[in-house]
Each structure stands twice: as C-alpha cells, then as structure tokens.
Amino acid sequence: MSGKDAAARAHRRPLRSRALTLWSLGYLLIGVALTAAAAWPVYETPRAIIVAAVGGLTGIALGALVRARRLGAVLGTVAAFAAYLVLAVPLAVPSGLASASAFTAALRDAVLGVVVGWKQILTLAPPLGEYQAVLVPLLIVSLFGAFLATLFALHPGRGAAAAVVVVAAMCVFGVAFGLSAPSRTLTLGPVSIAAPRELAIGVALFMASLAWLIGRTRLQRAAALRAVAAHGIARRGTPVWAAVRRRLLAGSLVVAALVAGALVAPAAAGWSDRSVLRDAVEPMVVVREQPSPLASYRSWFAQDRLDETVLSIDGDTGAIDRIRLVTLDRYDGQDFHVSPDTRFSRLPRTSAAGSERAELEITIGDGYRGIWMPVPGALVAAPQFAGERADALADGFHVDDAGDTAITIAEAPGGGRGLVAGDRYAVVAAPSADGRDDLSATEGGQSLLDAEAHPELVDWAQLQGQSRTGAGYLQLVDRLRSRGYLSHALLDDAAASGWISALESEGYSFAASYAGHSSARVEEVFASLRRQEVKVGSDAPPEMLVSAVGDDEQFAAAAALLARYWGFESRVVIGARLAAAEDVPGVAACTDVCTGGSMSAWVEVRAPDAEWVAVDVTPQFAMLPSTITEGEQLPEHPTIPEQPRSEALDPPQAQNDSQADAAPLDESEQPLLAEFLPVIRTVAISLLVALLLILPLLTLLIAKMLRRRRRASGDAELRLVGAWEELVDLYLDHGVTMPGDGTRVQRAEAATRLAAGQLARLVDTAVFSPQPPADADAAVAWEIVDRERSELDRGSRRWRRLRSRLRMRSFLERIRSPRKPALSARKPVLDTLTVAGARRQEEDA
Q: Which pTM does this prediction carry?
C-alpha cells in the first residue's frame, strides 16, 4: 500500500488521543462510584462497595482491552462472563468459601443469579446485607455495565454517546430495586429538599455526563486542529462574540435544567406514591397447602405428647411473653388457616440485642416437626441457625409481611420439610407490649362478618347489651370464657387421661366435648350459651350460666368471629405463653421448656390503623356446666344442626376425631423418586443456563456453516462468486487487510496473499468469459478457499483460530452502511476549515 493511500485511510478514521481515552475512563470511574452510592440503601454493607468497585474496575479493564486488541464482541463477551464466574463466589457469595460443597452451591447460585437473582432481591426486606447471593445482581450490573459502557465510551465515532445511557442504567439499579420510600427530607434553614440522596445522585450523574460529552468534543476538536496545523492548512478563526454567545447559551441551559429539576422533583414526589419493582413482585416462596394447625390443636394433649418437649428456650425470656407458632387469618367456614394472599419473603437483616431488643435461643424438641417456626412476635432479624442443617434451614427461612409467621421449607431428614428435633437457632425480637388499654378505648365499626351465616353468634352478642367498643368486646370475651368449660376430648379414656390427671389436682371434673371449629361447631357454642341465659336469666349466678364446653380451638374461633362482628380485624395465633404473660388456668405457661401441654391458642384483635392486641380465650374449669351433673357425659355422636343449603356438603372436618387428634404437623413420607427430584432439577437448570450461555456462539457457528453451504450450491458461476465472497469473509475474520473498493484483482493484490490473486483471476476469467464456466472451475475455486483457510489456521495459535471462528466481523461488515467520503467523515471540524483547506489536505495525503 502506498504512503498516500495509508494517509488517506488515516484521515478517514475519527481522531483519537491519549487524553481522550483518559477522559473517558475518568467518566466511567465516576459512573461506578455513583452506582455504588445508589445501591448502598439496598445493602448497607461495606462489601457492596467492594463488589461495585471490583466489578466496575474489572469491566472497565476488559472493555479497554477489547478496544485496544480489537478482540471483537463475541470474544469480549466470553471474557466478561469468564471474569464474572471467577469473581462471583469470592466477591459476591463469600459464604461459598467455607467448604467444597458450599463453593459448588455458591457457584450454582451465581450462575442462576444471572436469571433469578433480580427477583430474589425483590422478595427480601432491605437492607439486604451479605445474605446468601443477594450481591450477585450488583456484581452483574457493575461488571457488565462497566464493560459495555467502556466499549461505547472508547468508540472513536458518535456511538460513544451511548455510554451515558449505560451509566445511567447502572445508577437506576439502586433506585428501581431499592426502597419504596425516598430518603428523608433535608432541611437547610428555610429550604426543604425532598429526596436529597436521589436528587444528589441524579444531579451528579447529569453533571458528569454533560462534562464528559463537552470535554470529549473539545478534545476531538483540539486533535483535529493539530492535524490541520501539521499539514499547514489555513483555518478560519471563529469570531469572539460568537464563541462567547455559544458558551453563555450552553451555560444558561445547564443552569435552567438544574434549577427546574430541583424545583420540580420535590413537587413531583408528592403527586403520587413512589413505586419500585419491589412493590409489584410476587413472593419467591409460595407456602404449600398445609392442614390447619388449629384443626389438630387437641393432639398436643394426647397421652403420648402431653409431656413431650416441643421446644427449649434460653435467653431473655422476661421481656417476651409469648412464642408464636403460626398466625391464621383466613376463615372459610371450616378452618382457620394462613391466607393464600399472604406474602412470604426473606428477612436478611441483622440486629444486635440491646435495651430495646430481646434475644432468645430456641432448640426444637422431640414433640415437634413441621415448617412453622416457633418465634417471638416482632422479629427484627433473621434467625441465626446452628448445627449441621444451619445452611439448609437459613436457605428455607421466610417470614410473612408483618413478621408474625415464620417458616422454613428446608428438606427434613426422613422426608418432609421444616424443623426436626435438635434444630437450633437464635432470634432477636422487640419486647412485648400490652395493648389491652388501647383496645378498650377503641370504637368498633361496621360488621365484617356475614350475619346470616352465624345467627346464633349474632343473637348471643345482641343479648349481652354491650357497646360496640373495644371495652365492650373484651367484656364479651370475658363472659365467653367464664361461661365456657375446658375440655380437650370427647371421651375419658387412656388417650385423654394425661391432661385430666394434671387438672384433677385443681378440682377438675371431666366434661366431654368434640373437636373442630367449623361454623356449625362455633354456632353450637353460642347456641348453648344463649339457651342457658334465656332459661335462667341474665342476672342468674355465674355458675348457672356455664354451658358451653370446649377448649382453645373452639373458643379462639368464636372470639375471632365475634371480633369481626364487632367491626375489628382478628386472627388466631397458636403458640405458647411464657412466664411474662398473664397466668391462664388450664394451660400452663412455660419458662425454659415448652411441652405439648403448654401449647395454647389465642386471638389477636385490632382496629384500623392500630396495633394487634393479644386476647386470651381459654375457658375456665372451676365451675361445671349447669346443664349436666358430675359423672354424666354428652352422647358420643352429637347431632350438629346443619345450615340450610341447596348444595351437598361434606361432613365437617372438625367432627372427625381420628383426624382432629392426629399429629399436628407431621408429613407423609415421600417416595424414593422425590429424593432425587431436587438433584435432577438442579442439574437440569445448570445445563439450561450453560446452554443459554453458549447459545450465541453455537448460533454464530451454525450461521457461518449455512452461509458457506448456500454459497457452495447452485450453478458453476454462482459457486465461483460464492467462493470469492467466502474468501473475503475469511480474510475479515482472520484480520487480513483487504480494501473494500476496487476490482477483485486489485483487492487481491492489496491483500498480498497468493491465494487471493489466484482466485481473483480465476473468478474474473470465468465470470467475464463468453463461455459459461465449468463445474471443474468452481471445484478448483473452493479448493483454493479451503487451502487458504488451512494455511491461515496453520500459522495461528489455537486461541486465535477459535477467535476467527467466533468473530462476527464478516457479518457486521456486510450490514454496515457504505462509507461516507473523507470530507463527510471530518464534518465535526468543518467549522474551523475552509473548503479549499480541506481539499488541499486530501491532495497532500
């Protein structure tokens, strides 16, 4: 190639300089810093800063290397993914360094995090800390975002401006995946700045992007002027007033944009509620259909489970009055159960115990097994699990939105899921507070209960003549408890003798009652109370009004429905009372050890916009029901009045004692295949992710193979032309220089490759000959192409051969628009050059 041609090609390239590269890298570093600042409220851990910094620097370094070495988009992307896999575990999932098995699990989470990590962080309560693999999305954003932004920023043409869009998207990550509420308003004297953190990040991003774009343009212009001066080309100076006017206009626009943003943003923040992705995502874990724990409440008092240890407690038990097992807020006429609308999420925060924190250590005993986790109310931190199953239990831990019901769905030894005997964990919770006084002063509201479905409840409540207030409701509950009688069984047999013997020392006499809390069973409670009060009168002695027989199951359901009729929200809680709670005869409180006989059920009630208040419902056992005499018991199969309905009804689940008295939370053993399903699922997902990662490479290889097959088919003339096109693409992918203009022979001579000259002459001779070419000529042409491919591969290393196979340059070169003339390529500097000067520059080149 002549010196004139080389100079002309040099002039057709956009001007670059070392100062421009350093200027662009400085802007990218500012973008990484702003990304870390925007993501800080999501994590609030120093490791997040490290992840953003290391990921961003790695992405910038890879992008600069790809631009400098011209590796191509495909190899650059492969290098970025390789860097991600190397950094993911030690940087974003440090818990994977504990052991080989932990490393494998962490690497799997890192790979899957590319797809599912975004949803995972939305199901967590921020700040996320370093919980499991929550830092993986931040590493992805910082590494790949910086890599892509670097490719754009170091682009010599106008495409460099796209780096601003990528950097802005990196900063948006912390806002979109962050908190629903903006940062607290900052007051500076008479001025109040709404969302100051978000505003500061936005202004910093705007100013940095504007400064980079302006500085980049000026550096390019300075390089163009130096090139003009080097060739001695005259340039026309710009009038001073025009330059001053242009700068004043640009500065005015910048100031106006900043002032408008500072004034409009706070006002716009109050136009509507702030909405982020976290507010619309479904929970990551859906609680499997579980039988109602309240339906099996009586099984705690079976002979073989009454004294069995359910859990052991150690720590600050004096500040906590109750241990919760499960909260049930949905009633379907048969059972109370967890509402299907409840959102379960993770709770990755950590909080040290202090003056306003109580810490407990809980150990599961032989008397319990299941997914529901015994925890205090108002959890402020995720449990710290201990033992061999600590990691699995932590992975399966979730809590509902209110923090009242905690679960773990970790696979349990012997089948099933959840906690088993020996599992240990420490929890931190806020101290309990008694809100009965607040509830007493609260006004009730419109009934939340279908009165037609509960006529006996409505009649009994109206018969009491109480006001629709919190105090009136508490009076109703007191009457319900004092006029009820405690009984955990239908028959006085060996299965029930344990709890009977425990209460006999306090003067207890057995009274039969059947299980269940269906609407029919609850209506029977209120019907017996109403009939007795009508019979003896409301002013009768208290012992004459005792008529309803049951335990916490029936009375908790009755009190919860009664609260809804009174206009209060209600729910049933199963758990155990500790020593700090008010003493309730019949169900002993536990101190260090909670047994089956300590398990209780109570009701929580609240008015709109108020706190939940716990209300005990266990009936008394000091006064016998007046409708029976001592030693007499109710029929074994009592008739239950059915509600009039037109459709067929299944028998109420509550009246099946064999089912109601079964073990509460045990799950049936799963078949052998179920043990391998998680492994099969993990392998399948890993293979799918690997396939997705290599799919672009496979697609490129297949596309090149199909292109070659298409060119090698058809008549002889088409195959000859196709052979030449294949050789041109071969040179593009191997980096062999061949000009795009000129005849085939001219281009072949410029390539300085013997095979190119042979093929060019062969194709020209065959195409322009008056006689059609023969098949033998086409075969010779493709032999030349194959020999040239082998020759190019023979002189290259293995990774270079792989690089040439995966390069997309031959595809991209054919879809690019035709190159513009040299004068148009230098349009940015035309305001400083005269037309005559530009033409002289081309002639000198």
A: 0.55
